[in-house]
Amino acid sequence: MSLSGKTAIVTGSNSGIGLGIAHELARVGADIVLNSFTDRDEDHALAESLAKEHGVKVRYIAADMSKGDDCRALIAKAGTCDILVNNAGIQFVAPIDEFPVAKWDAIIAINLTSAFHTTAAALPGMRKAGWGRIVNIASAHGLRASPFKSAYIAAKHGVVGLSKTVALETAGQGITCNAICPGYVLTPLVEAQIPDQMKAHHMDRETVIREVMLDRQPSRQFATVEEIGGTTAFLCSAAANQITGTTISVDGGWTAM
Ligand code: NAD
Predict the structure, then answer these.
(1) Residues pairing with 17 in the sheet
(2) Which of 161, 173, 235, 242 has the CA that lies 20 to 30 A from 130?
(3) Domain map of the chain by residue range?
């Protein structure tokens, strides 16, 4: 498979799953636009090193996915968007009656509404080209719930619904839209949850990982960023031309239960 000549925009891609996806798409020849809300030397250096490693063009464009105007400006500044990966996301855990309103608003904005804005901005170009791929990084929590994650679960279920709707609106136009639903992947987002879980459950790190985090993941193994990247690349391949409006779980069996 080659994605040579295609440009992929990956939101929230200066770390974790987004960066893993950027690596896999670059490895099969796509030019890449990396993004996050920061604009540091190290963000631009990351773009340079990815370009060098894979021999493709890589740019870093700062844009805050909590702001609709920034989302649309990201697509405009990139100029071309053949592949759009909506990956930016944050998490916050609290009972619903204690859930801070600002955290609810931020999670819905970054994890869900950003995908509405970027998709709306990217579709005209994809329609003109007669080809496009939209890959939304949802979660096993887009299909199943857990307590204390109301905003995240509402947003991720929303992402799955948005993906289906966009698929119907683009069917037969050479454009597909799907959601990938990862189980636990060991990234900074998950790493940050471990100390709180250790405190809450009075367990050490390894026990929390095995007994709490991976409790619902029958494989008892984290999925990797390379696996999420590879699944994204597959959805961009010709083999996936007729795969649209669906979810692909990469969750070690979580949603089989
Ligand atoms: P991460 O914290 O490593 O990465 C999140 C990325 O989003 C970072 O690059 C961060 O800079 C960026 N980001 C955060 N706020 C932003 C904003 N306002 N504007 C632009 N970028 C912003 O986390 P991750 O685990 O790699 O998560 C990536 C995606 O995968 C998220 O949507 C997350 O919900 C989803 N996901 C993660 C897991 C997991 O276990 N790690 C499981 C299922 C789904």
Answers:
(1) none
(2) 161
(3) 7-185+223-250, 186-221
